[in-house]
Design a protein that fits this description.
about 500 residues, eight-stranded mixed β-sheet, 16 helices, OB fold (Dihydrolipoamide Acetyltransferase, E2P), BirA Bifunctional Protein, domain 2, five-stranded mixed β-barrel, elongated, alpha+beta, single chain
Length: about 500
């Protein structure tokens, strides 16, 4: 058995003291893990209406977690925290009575309690609840950190998010903001008559994106299934079926690396509109971000890290070739062969594989030389066919597609295109993807015969859009890591 550290010994001693207090409550006939408790106010309600409550002498009933405590004799102060914030309480023996004041004295920081009392103003000018009744509701058996580990141990914040939420109001505010962002995303689309739908999480084919899937198995059906990596192909089937404006907001799963921008499961929203194209999706995306920012922040001017970003301006639209030329000096429109493209990329210090085609080389140079520079909202358009297996070819430029990605603060926030609705072209592209998979590309798109069948029935001209909700939340909450906006991010188990 591993030897206990001094810190672990100290924590165990504190837990023992708290368990003794738990037993003492039971001996008094008080359940240390109580039942329903009806409140009249939240902490912030008391503070917002303190003057009127003081003047009327109206009793208030609040409940929450004890977060600070001062004084152990005949009188003492404490802070009670609920979702709305904190309010100070004051317990005095001759006012609260022997039982209630006794409960107050024995209570520990972290205990969940109920308070009935009246508001008064302390000599220091702080509105405070004078305790008339103190009710133990839940005994906290484990002490909260005296100086929260989150200040120095970031991993602990993610592993024990429940403690992070208790100790750090900013973290709680981030997740309240996330909920509002999702609400207003839905509101924006609902107001434009899009229908929210639900499609399967378990797929027979891992399609809709180039990504490595998680693999599962269905015993009753005796078949391998995949956790979905995208929402796309099922939603486009619905457009074939006549549901002209649909969206889905849900979790997708990709068996890939973990870093500040990526988590194995994340929230994706995809939107599809019949008789629209990628230009309509650009307009929709721009309007959506502006709408949500204004709703949750009250402004379209935001701060992200060291950057000031103005979402309220007209967003730049520029082709991938032109923006690559701007930042690397390479004009791929003048390059005719794959060999020339690879040589130009290598001369610019960009690593490319020996068999990489021109379109992929262009994308590699973009990733290496351009992406991090796109701070203000920028739509990068005209993606190469080689990296866009589900996008419609660009009229007059069959090597390109009607596709864009949105970049803000140097990272991708949306991906969209005019959907490929030619089943013959789509089959040929799937076949090319299968050739790439046979050569070792684990993320190449698989063949999907049922989707091809759907296309053969006729997919109207359609615009499609995908937005990473987690990245949108990161942007609007000024969060540096995706883990800061996921309540329970994926973590490697501790040894």
């Amino acid at each position: 058995m591993a030897k206990q550290t001094q810190e672990e010994k100290r924590e165990n001693e504190l837990i023992k003291v708290r368990m003794d207090k738990m037993d003492a409550l039971r001996e008094k006939g008080v359940n240390p893990f109580g039942q329903r408790f009806e409140r009249t106010h939240h902490a912030q309600d008391v503070l917002d209406n303190a003057e009127a409550l003081l003047a009327s002498g109206e009793e208030v009933v609040v409940a929450g977690r004890l977060m600070a405590k001062r004084g152990q004799g005949k009188a003492g102060f404490a802070n009670v925290q609920d979702l709305s914030g904190r309010v100070q309480i004051y317990s005095r023996l001759d006012v609260a009575g022997e039982d209630s004041h006794g409960f107050f004295k024995k209570a520990d920081i972290g205990d969940i309690v109920g308070i009935r009392g009246v508001v008064f103003l302390t000599e220091k000018g702080e509105y405070t609840i004078s305790v008339r009744e103190f009710t133990p509701l839940t005994k906290s058996l484990r002490p909260l950190p005296e100086k929260y580990h989150g200040l120095t141990d970031v991993e602990m914040r993610y592993r024990q998010r429940y403690v992070d939420l208790i100790m750090n109001q900013e973290v709680q505010n981030t997740f309240i903001m996330r909920s509002k962002i999702v609400r207003y995303v839905r509101e924006f689309l609902d107001n434009k008559d899009f229908l929210e739908v639900e499609t399967p999480v378990l797929h027979g084919i891992a399609g809709g994106a180039n990504a490595r899937p998680f693999i599962s198995y269905h015993n009753a059906l005796d078949m391998q299934l995949y956790m979905r990596i995208a929402l796309e192909l099922h939603l486009k089937r619905l457009i074939v079926g006549g549901m002209e404006k649909v969206y889905e907001l849900g979790r997708v799963f990709r068996n890939e690396g973990i870093d500040t921008r990526h988590n194995p499961e994340f929230t994706l929203m995809e939107v599809y509109q019949a008789y629209a194209d990628y230009n309509d999706m650009m307009d929709l995306t721009e309007d959506l971000f502006k709408y949500v920012a204004d709703k949750v922040l009250g402004t379209t001017k935001i701060t992200y890290g060291e950057h000031e970003v103005d979402l309220g301006t007209k967003w730049l639209r520029i082709s991938m070739n032109d923006v690559v030329k701007q930042y690397s000096g390479i004009d791929f429109s003048t390059i005719e062969t794959d060999e020339e493209a690879r040589a130009a990329a290598r001369a610019a210090g960009v690593h490319v594989e020996d068999d990489m085609p021109k379109g992929k080389v262009l994308a590699e140079v973009f990733d290496a030389k351009v992406e991090e520079n796109l701070i203000q909202p920028t739509f990068v358009t005209d993606y190469p066919i080689e990296i866009s297996p589900l996008s419609r070819r660009k009229d007059g430029h069959p090597e390109l597609t009607d596709r864009f990605e949105l970049f803000i603060v140097g990272r991708e926030h949306a991906n969209a295109f005019s959907e490929l609705n030619d089943p013959i072209d789509q089959r040929e592209r799937f076949e090319k993807q299968m050739e790439a998979k046979a050569k070792g590309d684990d993320e190449a798109h698989p063949m999907d015969e049922d989707f091809l069948t759907a296309l053969e029935y006729g997919l109207p001209p359609t615009g499609g859009l995908g937005i990473g909700i987690d990245r949108m939340v990161m942007l609007l909450t000024n969060s540096a890591s995706i883990r800061d906006v996921l309540l329970f991010p994926a973590m490697k188990p501790r040894d």
